[in-house]
Amino acid sequence: MKHHTQYLWFNTKNRHDIVNITPQVEEALVKSEIKEGLCLVNAMHITSSVFINDNENGLHQDFLAWLEKLAPYGKDKYKHNLTGEDNGDAHLKRTVMGREVVVAVTAGKLDFGPWEQIFYGEFDGQRRKRVLVKIIGE
Question: Residue 91: enclosing H or E segment and its boundaries?
């Protein structure tokens, strides 16, 4: 079995952001030369997420607004923030949106359903973070 590991790096301008990373994952798949297998895409930070959904800006705005209602930003809102942090909300948002996705690789392509794309969700941005892409197969 072959394998390929690559890291993607992000440093968003905003504290909260959603970035379509499908093209970078597809590039990693081409480099891997794997035709049949699995592709894992994993957020390597506990205040960011990787998820699959539609690439529609209004939907992304809805996600961010909904998450803000579920876990609003605020330095005095979370016990976690008593440790000197201010990102308790970001940990909760990441938990809701998920840590990783696994996509089947078929005939050398990511085997998506209609409209599916891979996204990096940032909930405590403006600093450098990484995403792991691990592809295994033949």
Answer: helix 88-97
- The identity of residue 23, as a single letter, is P
Where does 55-128 show beta strands of DSSP type E?
100-106, 109-110, 116-122
Task: Compute the Cα dihedral for 35, 38, 44, 45 and give only its sign.
Answer: positive
3-class DSSP state of 114? coil
Q: pLDDT tens, 3-46?
A: 999 999 999 999 999 999 999 999 999 999 999 999 999 999 99
CA dist 7 to 13, 73, 133, Å?
Answer: 20, 29, 6
Q: What's the structural domain count of the chain?
A: 1
Q: Is the pTM of this model over 0.85?
A: yes
Give the domain CATH number at 71: 2.60.120.460
Partners of 134 in the β-ladder: 5, 40
Structural domain range at position 59: 2-137
The residue behind tokens 């891979």 is 118
